[in-house]
Amino acid sequence: MEMSAALLAFDALGQPTRLAVFRLLVQVGGQGLAAGEIAAQLNISPSTLSTHLSILTQSGLLLAVRDGRIIRYAADMAGLRALLTWLLQDCCGGKPEICAPVLDALACNC
Fold this sequence. Notes:
alpha+beta, Arc Repressor Mutant, subunit A
């Protein structure tokens, strides 16, 4: 991962509404939620939510999948893992194997 991509992801998560959306979608798992469901659960107007979903998707932290007329959003666990791997790649005095269990724990089959 390039630093610019990491900065984009951190910038996306640095806003309270987007962080709440991402956390909700991590909790829901791989099936994700439709935008309307996200808006209802977090009490966010659909027009405001649309912008946040777009930013999170462009940052590589969300997946958007069309299901007929509905778009379902899910946390992109591969994107999250790439971000955390980038953060931890030089950890522990050049011994990244120390951090490997943390990264392995993120390899869920959501």
